[in-house]
Amino acid sequence: MVFKLSQKDFELIDAVLDDYAKKGKTDKICPYCGTPIKKKVVGMGYTVSCQTQNCLQETCRGI
Ligand SMILES: [Zn+2]
Asked: Quick one: which of 1, 16, 21, 57 is 20 to 30 A from 39 by CA?
């Protein structure tokens, strides 16, 4: 099953990235499972996800 992100999810992920850019961390939590959302750097890109598998996740590859 592929988890589909809504427009609201993208806004949340944007807010998480903004938090990381300004503070180096975020206190946002996943609206679906309630676990903390974290940003992980993967190679040239990064992944923003909560702590539950197959839940909120957005992967961005570096250019
Ligand atoms: Zn979640």
From this structure: 1
